[in-house]
Design a protein that fits this description.
Heme oxygenase, mainly alpha, disordered C terminus, Haem_Oase-like_multi-hlx
């Protein structure tokens, strides 16, 4: 099979395997997302002990995403700024060490939306775990917000977006880059010995 034929075959396979960009994102970034989640397994098991580490990583990651997406949707940009502001106050209150990440390249707005809204959607589950662990006062970052409608709207947009082509390739690659930013932050951050139990 020649190079051109191989290229055409690969494109047909993309269309056949992934009916839309949302499906492709879930399949092609799922393993990286799972690996990142594993880095937070200690926080999931013992949220009070590892809270400082979690907050520091979130602040480093959200700061990097905000810097990397000057053309973000206004609502996503506001979500990022609000999260960063809350996290900055939380880490100041708890005297956390926050790693400094290298300045990322520009990321596609859809990729940043996928990362940010998905992350914020998960804070409700984490808030309940912190409550069960007796953490008080609750960090500002975990203030309840109605993210479900934003997530549904984003999923509808991604389902309406073709899974192949330059735009789709860019979004997938940028989501992977975003997950890798948080992975780097988790690796660099140290767990403070002063965490509240």
């Amino acid at each position: 099979m020649g190079a051109l034929e191989q290229h055409d075959f690969d494109r047909m396979q993309t269309v056949a395997v992934w009916p839309d960009l949302l499906t492709r994102l879930r399949e092609q970034t799922g393993a990286t997302h799972e690996a990142l989640d594993q880095l937070f397994a200690p926080f999931q098991r013992d949220p009070a002990t590892y809270l400082n580490h979690f907050l520091a990583v979130q602040l480093a990651g959200f700061s990097a995403l905000l810097a990397a997406c000057p053309d973000c949707d206004a609502q996503v940009a506001a979500m990022l700024r609000n999260a960063k502001s809350a996290l900055a106050q939380d880490v100041a209150d708890r005297a956390c060490f926050v790693p400094q990440l290298p300045a990322p390249s520009s990321l596609h707005p859809l990729a940043v939306a996928y990362l940010v809204i998905g992350s914020r959607l998960g804070t409700e589950v984490l808030r309940r775990r912190l409550t069960d662990a007796g953490v008080a006062p609750m960090p500002r970052y975990f203030t309840p917000e109605p993210y479900q409608a934003d997530w549904r709207q984003l999923c509808a947009t991604l389902r309406a977006t073709p899974a192949d082509g330059a735009l789709a390739d860019s979004v997938v690659q940028d989501v992977l880059t975003g997950f890798n930013l948080f992975t780097l932050a988790a690796t660099l951050a140290r767990r403070d010995e002063g965490d509240v139990h």
